[in-house]
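User: Okay, second chain of the day. Same drill as before: sequence in, structure tokens out.
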Amino acid sequence: MDDRRTVKVSKYIAKHLRHQPERIGLVLDEAGWVEIDTLIAAAAAHGFRFTREELDHVVAHNDKRRFAIDGTRIRASQGHTVEVDLGLPEAAPPPYLYHGTVARNLDAIRAEGLRPMTRHDVHLSADRETATRVGARRGRPVVLAVDAGAMYDDGHVFRVSANGVWLTQGVPPRYLRFPESH
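Assistant: Same drill. Structure tokens below.
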């Protein structure tokens, strides 16, 4: 499977497991799971065909580990805009986590902090490199440090997804450290 096909199948699956399952007639369970055969059949019925082997390749080779398989079921690891309960337990974060963004968002972030926007949670990275890659998807990246240890001590809840993305409901401005050049 070539890289272009891998990306195309991955984006299609992500769109329908995270944001628009109803568009192809999928019904996710309360935790976001759907039978793999049901996903493949629904996609084919809506003009996008892929095989189980292609799906397995996408899951195994996705650098962000966006998907989880449990037996005959699949779900997105995080990033949903549809209502799901991933059942992730609370976890104590490392002292600092990181968030990648772009300069045009900094004024709003300084004023309001990090908000989940259309998602259920704010996504944070355990390292600067990952946050840089995330921010680079929208332009020249700016990486913010989040004083996660202080947030946790102040009662904020953190969870970590199966693929290592840290999730929290929001990050108030006082816990953010901005780069000096911005």
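The mean pLDDT is 93.

User: Thanks, on to the next one.
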